[in-house]
Design goal:
CATH topology of the largest domain: Pectate Lyase C-like
Distance between the termini: 52 Å
Shape: globular
CATH class of the largest domain: Mainly Beta
Structural class: little secondary structure
Strand order of the largest sheet: 1-5-4
C-alpha cells in the first residue's frame, strides 16, 4: 500500500491561474503549462466549458461540481470522484477513468469514445494526526444510477465496472467492452450496442427495448424476449446472402449515372436490409437512389453522392452521412437517432424543370443526430423530433420547422440538451 497523501486544496484564484496556463498549453500558445493537479479537492467547483484536455487530474475530488461541456479529452482522470456531478455534454474521449466513481452523475450527451473505465487503484480518505489523508485501494469503476442518456461510448472499456441502475437510453455504444460489468436494472432502451461485448455481465432486470443488438457477444448470457422487445438483432442468413446482389446493384446504379444511362441500371433498395454492406456505400455515386423503409442502421454513406435519394421510413440509426451530397434527399418518417450529417450538403436540388426540391426530414426522428456545419438551407423539419440533436455552425437560411402547414398547433418535442435549440437553428 502507498504512503498516505494529503488532499490538495486550491483557492479560486490559484485554480483559475492553473487552468488559464493549461488552456494556453492546449492551444500551443507561449507561456502555457500542462495542469498537474493530483488529488486536488475541487468539490462543488465550477469548471463548466473549460478545456482540460490532456491534464493530469489523478485522484481529484469533483463531487457535486459543474463540469458541463468541460473538455477532458485524453485527460488522466484515474481514480477521480465524480459523484453527483453535472457532466452534460462533457468531452471525455480517450480519457483514463480507471477506478473513477460516477455514481449519480449526469453525463447526458457526453462523449466517452474510447474512454477507459476499468478497475484501478483509487484514493480513499482517512484520518491521520487530525488531517484528511488518502490511502489507496483497488476498485472497479462505478457508475451506479448515473445518466448517460444520448451519450457516445463507442469503443469504451467498462470491463468489470458497476453501472447498476444506470440510464444508457439511446446511447451509441458500438464496440463497448462490458465483460463482467454489473448492469442490474440498467436502462439500455434504444442504445446502439452493435459489436458490444457483454460476456459475463450481470444483466438482471436490464432492459434493451428497441436497442440495436447486432453482432453482440453474450457468452453464457441470455436475453429474454421481454427485455429485448423491439430490438434490432443480427441480419438473417437470407439478408447476408442477399448482400452480394445488393452490392452489384449499387455498382450498377453508379455505372448508370456515370454513363448517363448507357450502361448499368438504377437500384431499388426499398425494404432491403443493407447492414451487411456496412461501409461499401462510402463515396459512391448513388444519385436518386430509392431506399424506402430500408434497414440501414450503422451504414456508412460518407462523402457519397445521394442527390434526390429517398430514404422515407428507413431505419438509419447511427448511419454516417458525413460530407455527403444530399441535396433534395427525402427522409420523411425515417429513424435517424445518432446519425452523422456533419458537413453534409442538404440544400435544395435544382430539378430539370427549374424547380427546387428541398431536403425533407418531416416526421423524422433525429434525436442526438449531428448536423454540425451542414448546409440545411430550405430543408423541411416539420414535426421532426430533434431532442438532443446538434446544429452548431449550420447554414439554416430558409429552413422550415414546427408543425407542418395546415396541421393544428402542437407542443414541440423537447430539445432536451440540444445544441442549437429545440429545433434546427443557425448557430
Amino acid at each position: 500500500m502507498s504512503a498516505p497523501i494529503a488532499r490538495l486544496k486550491l483557492d479560486d484564484e490559484t485554480l483559475a491561474g492553473v487552468i488559464r496556463l493549461h488552456e494556453r498549453f492546449v492551444a500551443g500558445q507561449p507561456g502555457g503549462k500542462r495542469a498537474i493537479l493530483k488529488f486536488a479537492d475541487l468539490k462543488g467547483g465550477n469548471l463548466s466549458g473549460r478545456n482540460l484536455a490532456d491534464a493530469d487530474l489523478t485522484g481529484c475530488l469533483f463531487e457535486g461540481a459543474n463540469l458541463s461541456k468541460t473538455v477532458f479529452s485524453r485527460a488522466n482522470l484515474y481514480g477521480c470522484d465524480f459523484r453527483k456531478t453535472d457532466m452534460r455534454h462533457a468531452r471525455l474521449n480517450r480519457a483514463d477513468m480507471r477506478g473513477a466513481c460516477l455514481r449519480g452523475a449526469d453525463l447526458s450527451h457526453a462523449d466517452l469514445t474510447e474512454a477507459d473505465f476499468r478497475e484501478g487503484e483509487v484514493a480513499v480518505a482517512s484520518k491521520k494526526d487530525g488531517l484528511t489523508v488518502l490511502k489507496h485501494e483497488r476498485r472497479a469503476g462505478e457508475a451506479d444510477n448515473a445518466s448517460f442518456v444520448g451519450a457516445t461510448l463507442d469503443g469504451s472499456k467498462f470491463n468489470g465496472a458497476s453501472a447498476n441502475g444506470a440510464d444508457f437510453a439511446e446511447c451509441s455504444m458500438r464496440g463497448v467492452k462490458l465483460t463482467g460489468a454489473q448492469l442490474k436494472n440498467a436502462n439500455l432502451t434504444g442504445a446502439n450496442l452493435d459489436g458490444a461485448d457483454l460476456q459475463g455481465a450481470v444483466l438482471f432486470g436490464a432492459v434493451f427495448h428497441g436497442a440495436i443488438l447486432s453482432n453482440v457477444s453474450l457468452g453464457a448470457n441470455r436475453l429474454s424476449s421481454e427485455a429485448t422487445a423491439g430490438a434490432l438483432l443480427d441480419p438473417t442468413g437470407a439478408a447476408l446472402e442477399r448482400a452480394v446482389d445488393l452490392d452489384q446493384m449499387a455498382r450498377s446504379h453508379q455505372l448508370w449515372w456515370e454513363t448517363n444511362g448507357a450502361k448499368g441500371s438504377p437500384a431499388r433498395f426499398d425494404g432491403e436490409d443493407l447492414r451487411p454492406l456496412g461501409t461499401k456505400f462510402r463515396a459512391m455515386r448513388l444519385t436518386a437512389l430509392s431506399a424506402r423503409n430500408a434497414l440501414a442502421a450503422g451504414c456508412v454513406f460518407l462523402e457519397s453522392q445521394l442527390q434526390g435519394a429517398v430514404f422515407d421510413g428507413a431505419d438509419l440509426r447511427g448511419a454516417i452521412f458525413f460530407a455527403a451530397d444530399l441535396r433534395g434527399a427525402s427522409f420523411v418518417g425515417a429513424r435517424l437517432t445518432k446519425a452523422d450529417f456533419r458537413k453534409a450538403l442538404l440544400s435544395p436540388l435544382k430539378l430539370p424543370n427549374g424547380q427546387l426540391k428541398p431536403a425533407n426530414f418531416t416526421d423524422s426522428v433525429i434525436r442526438y443526430a449531428m448536423f454540425d456545419h451542414a448546409d440545411i438551407r430550405e430543408a423541411l423539419f416539420y414535426d421532426a423530433d430533434p431532442t438532443g440533436a446538434r446544429f452548431s455552425g449550420v447554414n439554416a437560411a430558409g429552413m422550415k420547422r414546427g408543425p407542418r402547414p395546415g396541421s393544428p398547433p402542437a407542443a414541440q418535442t423537447g430539445g432536451d440538451g440540444a445544441e442549437g435549440g429545440s429545433a434546427p437553428v443557425a448557430a
